[in-house]
Amino acid sequence: MKNLTVEAARPYQVHIGSGVLAALLDEYSEMISKADRIAVIADETVATLHLDHLKAHLMNSDKVKFKVIPSGEQAKSIETYMDCQSFLLEQGFSRKSVILAFGGGATGDLAGFVASTFMRGIPFIQIPTTILAHDSAVGGKTAINHELGKNMIGTFYQPAAVIYDTHFLATLPEKEVRSGMAEVIKHAFISNEAWLDELLAINDFNKLGEEELALHLERGIAVKAAIVEEDEYETGVRKYLNFGHTLAHAIEAASGYGKITHGEAVAIGLAYALYLSEHKKFHQFLEWGKATGYPFDLLEKIPFEKLQSYMKKDKKTADGLLNFVLLHETGKPYMETVGTGQAEDAYTTLCATIGEMHI
Ligand SMILES: NC(=O)c1ccc[n+]([C@@H]2O[C@H](COP(=O)([O-])OP(=O)(O)OC[C@H]3O[C@@H](n4cnc5c(N)ncnc54)[C@H](O)[C@@H]3O)[C@@H](O)[C@H]2O)c1
Ligand SMILES: O=C(O)C(=O)C[C@@H](O)[C@H](O)[C@H](O)COP(=O)(O)O
Ligand SMILES: [Zn+2]
């Protein structure tokens, strides 16, 4: 098992390894057993596949209550948020209670937001179950979506711990593996060329061994943790973690939340940002995306005007100007304001390139 401390204002540990859940629940048993109530918030799919396993290692007590929420982006709705708050109130939760977020990034973002606002904040532990959640479970961004923009309502609220048992990843469908690997390669692009080259050499995610995957997740977590430690509240360098996201979030909102996975949208956003950066690996990244099955062709199905209206509401936008994370080179991100004309030209060229490459 690997352990990493995130030195945020309130430091916490990220534990990662295969089959580590039981030992770690034991490690946090004092915090959990001291709570007057414990809510396990799990999405439907994860509950069906893995809740029995979690239950087997959790204390068997009436204090533990289970709240099953819809799978995917539907979890990040105001309705699910209010449903969870009502559940906590009805079940007698108090300021001495704890929440366990059991699922992928959608569950973690929702449960974190619930925890950060219930009675002005109670502790929560992230128990992530997706590859993508190596990113979402660390760093303390919580959120729900608004029809006008992704993650528009949320807080910065760090978890008390992250218990990442990679055993759960075995049941992920291929689409979700692909989605998660987009955030892994994002972390590589903003940090390390040699690691990036290793990832670009993968042409079939099915061939990724468990140990190899765990190594990539650990590297991604280390990159994220270092940036969060430097800039927890995103006044500066934390924006670099948003590489590819200005367009990605616009695609997710414009196509309807959940129609395309977050990671698939991020992959398209990365291609766009690489083009704008005139990055030497732009074409290589498109080839990699083609081999590994990212749906780049979805981009041309959404008119630029629609994307632009969402991008103008991006959290990095100021005074109506589009601000993108770009790369001088791998590992050297910077912020750049891009004019509407240039943004539209880049969209048109990217769509044409994707068309020519038949992806
Ligand atoms: N807070 C952050 O810093 C941050 C970072 C990145 C992404 N995000 C957010 O995270 C969300 C995406 O996270 P995600 O990709 O984990 O999505 P998700 O939570 O929607 O999970 C994806 C799908 O996989 C299923 N699933 C989860 N674990 C499974 C398992 N072990 N086996 C089989 N199926 C499983 C889920 O039920 C869901 O249908 C987005 O909303 C994104 O905005 C947040
Ligand atoms: O942790 C961060 O900071 C990130 O930007 C990580 C992103 O991968 C993630 O999708 C995040 O939720 C985006 O945040 P937002 O502030 O742009 O909504
Ligand atoms: Zn993301």
UniProtKB/TrEMBL annotation:
Principal subcellular localization: cytoplasm
Q: Which residues does NAD(+) bind?
A: 71-76, 105-109, 129-130, 141, 150, 168-171
Per its UniProt record, what CDD domains does this chain match?
DHQS (cd08195)
| Entry keyword annotation includes Metal-binding | yes
Show where the 3-dehydroquinate synthase N-terminal domain sits.
68-178
Give the location in the cell: Cytoplasm
Q: Where are the transmembrane segments?
A: none
The pathway to which it is assigned is: Metabolic intermediate biosynthesis; chorismate biosynthesis; chorismate from D-erythrose 4-phosphate and phosphoenolpyruvate: step 2/7
Q: EC number(s) on record? A: 4.2.3.4
Q: Which UniProt keywords apply?
A: Amino-acid biosynthesis, Aromatic amino acid biosynthesis, Cobalt, Cytoplasm, Lyase, Metal-binding, NAD, Nucleotide-binding, Zinc
Gene Ontology molecular functions: 3-dehydroquinate synthase activity
Task: State the free-text cofactor note.
Answer: Binds 1 divalent metal cation per subunit. Can use either Co(2+) or Zn(2+).
Q: Where is the 3-dehydroquinate synthase C-terminal domain?
A: 180-317
What is the documented function of this protein? Catalyzes the conversion of 3-deoxy-D-arabino-heptulosonate 7-phosphate (DAHP) to dehydroquinate (DHQ).
What is the protein name stated in its UniProt record? 3-dehydroquinate synthase
> Source species, please?
Metaplanococcus flavidus
